[in-house]
Amino acid sequence: MTTEDESKNAASQKMQENIARIEALTERMVGALSHKRAPNTALEGPGPDLQLSATTALMKEWMEKPSKIFEAQTNYWSQALKHYVEASESLAQGTFSPPEDPGPTDPRFKNPLWDSHPYFNFIKQQYLIASKGVQDAVDQLDEIDDTDRKRLNYFSRQIIDLMSPTNFLATNPDALEKAVQTEGESLVKGLENLVRDLEANQGDLLVTLADKDAFVVGENIGTAEGSVVYRNRLFELIQYKPTTEKVHKTPLIIFPPWINRFYIMDLKPQNSLIRWIVDQGFTLFIVSWKNPDQTYADVGLEDYVQEGYLEAIDQVKALTGEPKINAVGYCIAGTTLSLTLGLLNKRKDRSINSATFFTTLTDFSDQGEFTVFLQDDFVDGIEKQCETDGVLSSYFMSRTFSFLRSRDLIYQPAIRSYMMGEAPPAFDLLFWNGDSTNLPGKMAVQYLRGLCQQDKFAGEGFEVLGETVSVRDVNVPLMAVACESDHIAPWIASFNGVAQMGSKDKQFILSESGHIAGIVNPPSKKKYGHYISAAPVADPNQWKAEAEFHDGSWWPHWGEWLAKKSGKMVPARAPGGPDHKILCAAPGTYVKEVAKI
User: Fold this and answer.
1) Has domain 226-393+438-592 been given CATH number 3.30.450.40?
2) pLDDT > 80? residue 73
3) Is the pLDDT of residue 5 over 90?
4) Quick one: which of 211, 295, 364, 576 is 20 to 30 A from 139 by CA?
5) Whole-angstrom Cα distance, residue 251 to residue 283?
6) Which of 271, 283, 304 is nearest to 240 (CA)?
7) Looking at the predicted structure, is the pLDDT value of residue 368 above 50?
8) Strands 467-469 vs 478-483: parallel, antiparallel or unpaired
9) Domain Poly-beta-hydroxybutyrate polymerase N-terminal, which positions (predicted)?
């Protein structure tokens, strides 16, 4: 048998093996899809009110300003036709090259074929022209309010991003080249990845962002040394082992958001905020929240305040023997820390010596990108889902946050996984992002209705454990850190909430980057800078205009401020105490519980 015959036989055998793999994978896919949950139509797209508003606005434009409609349509068709003619002329000349492509550049179209090959260039240009036409049509609607405009912009952008030619095999040169290079093996591996994700998510398609086998919490991620010294149904309290002989007298407790796991602040030793704080000579405690199931359906915000915040504060005071402690709240945990501080003020309880807020919203008058999800049609759907499941499932939380950055968190990962057949990367931040949690049903609805929609905390007041508290009741010394490109807690909205707080001693730091990278920004990286201003925390524009930019992390500046609020140095405290036996080593047990409904 010749070498050529052997090569043909090997190729034929490989083809048969791939066909068998595809058949087996297809059977698994059918099985996975049979378990798909019934859709909640209220969470699938714009409701009838939005559709009616858009249609009414369009009809009004048509009746009152027909020339405007015709102009927009003519502009789109002229651009599309002009490009078609230019492409046809270029091909007719026999050069097999596209017409001049002036851009603009788009990171989705990095492959040189998008610019040099007439087929791919034509598809790209027609897509970009059509995308601009859709966006212009929404932007030019006059008879529509700002909220509906934001929602229409969001949903139209979702459609535009979905229809990108990079999302389809026949029009993705990267995927086609990979398929040819691997003799189709990449497509079979992509199908394996697709089936894996369907099986892992009960028939729903959630692309795996990171290699789930690359990290084990407590082994190579979340490894700062400490002990669980208290546990109740809502949280485990972790006390970290000191790394200095002496520590500041006043201890520090961090309340992380219970939407995600606390170890975002302890991913690796070199970027661990937890390790850095301990190394600065602070006695550090952190709350690790329980991942709730259906039995937590009736747990509300008041339960988090009473059994979470107040209980954790009491335990830290008892463990250290200190009458006052410093507290940090991150994101939603910062919002709830503010509620707790307002309550303590009403009760004349001075347990909190100072507070720090990371990317925290307390004034929801500007809902930012979440405007889309905070209207009644969507929140009604969430409420119905919570009534059915008892919790707001991590599935809905993950999907909502992913669609806010669909190009980066949905389509690009899906292309790499399903069309290129690539394994998910071993990336700690994406691993954490996919390690999501449920929210108790009652708490989720209270938060969305009372705080986000009705903005009671910054307005008439929000009722907590028998007291009506407002943002003005927060009167402890405080520092707030916001992030310049944060799409979850926009910095100006965060600033406006802090500006309304009753504290006479307050400072604000604006970090570069976003919701996570702007906070997890260690001094060793020298990656993102920050702004500090001598202007009062009153008007965000004035504050920013007078701000001074500093290279590198904001951690040292905050550390200096915190040290001044933390008293003299005392001998370092070992975790636990006579009345607080060590229950287990950090990171504890709650952080390892898988989200279930």
Assistant:
1) no
2) no
3) no
4) 364
5) 5
6) 283
7) yes
8) unpaired
9) 106-277
Query: What is the rounded CA–CA span in Å between residue 409 and residue 487?
Result: 14
Q: Are strands 235-240 and 284-289 parallel, antiparallel or unpaired?
A: antiparallel
- 449 Cβ contact partners less than 8 Å away, ≥ 6 residues apart: 379
Burial 266-297 (b: 16+ CB within 10 A, else e): bbbeebbbbbbbbebbbbbbbbbbbbbbeebb
Rounded to whole angstroms, how far apart are CA atoms 253 and 265? 13
Task: Give me the chain's average pLDDT, please.
Answer: 88
| 141/127 Cα distance (integer angstroms) | 22
What token pair was written down for 48? 């009838």
**Pairing mode, strands 439-440 and 462-464:** unpaired
Q: Which residues contact 402 (CB under 8 A, 6 or more apart)?
A: 206, 409, 410
Q: How many other CB atoms are found less than 10 A from the CB of residue 75?
A: 14
**466-476 as b/e, with b when 16 or more CB fall inside 10 Å?**
ebebbbebbbb
Decide if pLDDT at 141 tops 60.
Answer: yes
Confidence category of residue 580, pLDDT binned at 50, 70, 90:
very high
d(CA 512, CA 486): 9
Q: What value does the mean pLDDT take over residues 174-179?
A: 92
For residues 511-526, one letter each, b for 16 or more C-beta atoms within 10 angstroms of the residue's C-beta and e for the rest, the string is: bbbbbbbbbbbbeeee
98 three-class SS? coil
Provide the 8-state DSSP code for 477.
Answer: -
CA-based nearest residue to 284, from 219, 360, 356: 356
Summarised one tens digit per residue, pLDDT across range 224-236 is 999 999 999 999 9
Alpha helices for 448-554 (secondary structure H): 491-500, 540-545
- Residues 369/401, Cβ–Cβ less than 8 Å: no
What's the pLDDT tens digit per position in 308-317?
999 999 999 9
Instruction: State the residue for tokens 């006059």.
Output: 142
| Nearest-10 Cα torsion for 93, 96, 102, 105 | 170
Q: How far is residue 92 from each of residues 80, 98, 100, 249, 487, measured CA to CA in Å?
A: 18, 11, 15, 81, 48
**In this structure, what token pair is assigned to residue 453?**
């929609």
Give pLDDT, residue 57.
46
pLDDT of res. 204: 81
What tokens were used for 191? Answer: 């199908």
DSSP type of residue 221: B
Question: How far apart, in whole angstroms, are the C-alpha atoms of residue 179 and residue 186?
Answer: 6
pLDDT of residue 29: 78
331 noted as active-site residue: yes
Q: In a 3-state reduction of DSSP, which class is residue 392?
A: strand
Place of tokens 């690790």: 288
Calpha distance 334→443 (Å, rounded): 15
pLDDT score at 32: 77
Phi, psi dihedrals of residue 533, rounded to the nearest 5°:
-130, 145
Return the pLDDT at 156: 87
CA 426 to CA 438: how far, in whole Å?
Answer: 24
Residue with tokens 């047990």: 589
Helix axes 185-200, 3-33, angle to 10 degrees: 20
Location of each CATH 3.40.50.1820 domain in the chain: 226-393+438-592
Q: pLDDT tens-digit profile of 326-347?
A: 999 999 999 999 999 999 999 9
CA distance 49 to 278: 52
Q: What are the backbone dihedrals phi and psi of residue 358, each rounded to the nearest 5 degrees, phi first?
A: -100, 125
